[in-house]
């Protein structure tokens, strides 16, 4: 009923920038919590940034001041703007959304993941 499609990953040099997009579709009534996570092989999936419907945001300490999570108005697409990228930001990035469907059921869905590689 809900699908998240990510785009925008790639390879950049250290100090570069990338913008990740997460487009949600389906019988969505609301996007209440929007998250970006990242994961490396054999490691846990860690929260990078969170945006709530009241526009409040939370960031992992490692990305504060460099990454920005935002949503395109009332549309069902949200983004992760990443600047001053470092090699340690290399990971697969996943978007995650929690909200309500038209029938008021709660959903939680994940994107397919997109690789970000930062070369030193």
Short description:
This protein is mostly beta strands and 120 residues long. It has strands spanning 2-7, 10-13, 18-26, 28-39, 46-52, 57-59, 67-71, 77-82, 91-101, 106-110, 114-119.
Provide an overview of this structure:
The chain is an all-beta fold and 120 residues long. The chain has strands at 2-7, 10-13, 18-26, 28-39, 46-52, 57-59, 67-71, 77-82, 91-101, 106-110, 114-119. Strands 2, 4, 5, 6, 9, 10 and 11 form a 7-stranded mixed beta sheet that branches.
Outline the fold blueprint.
Layout: E1 2-7, E2 10-13, E3 18-26, E4 28-39, E5 46-52, E6 57-59, E7 67-71, E8 77-82, E9 91-101, E10 106-110, E11 114-119
Parallel strand pairs: 2-11
Antiparallel strand pairs: 1-3, 3-8, 4-5, 4-9, 5-6, 7-8, 9-10, 9-11
Question: What labels describe this entry?
Answer:
elongated; 62% strand; seven-stranded mixed β-sheet; mainly beta; 120 residues; 0% helix; four-stranded antiparallel β-sheet
- What characteristic shape results from the CA principal axes? elongated
Largest sheet: 7 strands, mixed
Q: Quickly give the structural class.
A: mainly beta
Our Rg estimate from Cα atoms comes to 14 Å
Helix content estimate: under 10%
Distance separating the two termini: 41 Å
If helices are DSSP runs of H or I spanning 4 or more residues, what is the number of helices? Answer: 0
Structure summary, number of beta strands: 11
Query: Strand share of the residues?
Result: over 45%
